[in-house]
Amino acid sequence: MTIIMESGRRRGLNSVLSSLSLLCVVLDLQLDGVLGATPVEIEHHLEMGRKLLAAGQLAEALSHYHSAVEGDSKNYLTYYKRATVFLAMGKSKSALPDLTQAIQLKPDFLAARLQRGNILLKQGSTQEAREDFQAVLNHSPDHEEAHDQLLKADKLESLQEEAHEAHRRGDCRIAVQVLEHVIELSPWDPESRELRAECYIQLGEPRKAIMDLTPASRLRADNRAAFLKLSQLHYSLGEHHDSLNQVRECLKLDQDDKECFALYKQVKKLSKQLDSAEELISEQRFQEAIEKYESVMRTEPNVAFYTNKAKERTCFCLVKMKSAEEAVDICSEAHQREPQNIHILRDRAEAYILMQEYEKAVEDYQEAREFDQENQELREGLDRAHKLLKISRKRDYYKILGVSRSANKQEIIKAYRKLAQQWHPDNFQSEADKKEAEKKFIDIASAKEVLTDPEMRQKFDSGEDPLDPENQQGGGGGGPREWPFGFNPFEGGNFHFKFNFN
């Protein structure tokens, strides 16, 4: 029995060993296909990579070089050529390990040494770059490019020290001037860009700081500090969408970053309120938009841009609501905060027009045009304000009826009836009084005719008097005002007219 069991165990063991042998053969065949490509296959990949690189098809070329490296990991040329593709794609950080591997496999490979030195120099690593250039010169003392690059490395190191010294003593203007030359020599150095950005912030030039921090944020593997600073700068400038994008980049690197998360919550809340307010304005829900901008000022009371924006847009909403007096107050406050804001001046001018204070409207439009001579809207607004001022010096139909420019038809007719009853010539006894009443009555009737006719009212609101003979086609100029309905009921005898105002 024991012999039988032992025999069974041996057969089972032999079966397992046989299976393992077969598995090893299969794996060996697969690995040979992946890692042990034949020289012919490797050469094919290298040749295809070269052709595709020459044709500018970088991604396809890179794929073939990947296959070449996998097929022969001991060939220094495959690493070097793949590094060349990485550099053509602008991926210097990816090229650097391949160049280093090529140099390890062949220490006297001068082309790789020189290429790595150039990358290190652009990254601001002067000591390491100098070692590569010196290694090239040790093998080839007359190598002109290596000699020139070595001099650049010495110059860069000197400039770096000068810039840091200027920054330490608080002389940011000098530091910025020196860093200009530093960054020309080492455009891929994040430290120099971050230092210059810090100086620009101290000099009150945040947009220039953004221009340096934007590439710097990508030059380090984990540059949360740069993304955070970018978000803060965009936020301070009122660019809340850009601020939100940058702080999100920080959280992609570390979702638990406390500073970035705190700023993210603030920017997201404010951005949502601002977008909502503008959407309400686009829907002509002006009172709700004003309330939303009040929320904006409560959410961010410390950054001037957002208070200024809230005041400016509230001014605009009040004009659209025809709340002229309140609009002038808010617009004036906004104008004090931003004296050169043409939108505030435009809106206050429109509020003055609603109040029939045309001279002030002309002044605001003229001031706005001083800041933007090419703005068509301001040019048209100024022309209209001038026309309204000219008409007001002749006759202003709104003033004649004593109604606001925003009065509706019912309010106009009501005012007309009241004044027509008051100034009807039959109410006066002396001839002089009747003549004066007649003139007023004609003006009242003219005002009613113009302001109750939508087309005529539109012309008048645009600065044109539709009853002025000068504005009539083929008109001949001046002369006495005529009865608007084509005849004068108060001439030609002792006629007495009674008007039914019901």
From TrEMBL:
GO terms for cellular component: endoplasmic reticulum. Residues 453-462 have a biased composition (Basic and acidic residues). Residues 453-488 are annotated as: Disordered. It is found in: Endoplasmic reticulum. Keywords: Coiled coil, Disulfide bond, Endoplasmic reticulum, Repeat, Signal, TPR repeat, Unfolded protein response. Its main location: endoplasmic reticulum. Residues 1-36 form the signal peptide. The lineage of its organism: Eukaryota, Metazoa, Chordata, Craniata, Vertebrata. Residues 396-464 form the J domain. This is DnaJ homolog subfamily C member 3. It holds the Pfam family TPR_16. TPR repeats lie at residues 76-109, 110-143, 342-375. GO terms for biological process: response to unfolded protein. Transmembrane segments: none annotated. Residues 348-375 form a coiled coil. It comes from the Eukaryota.
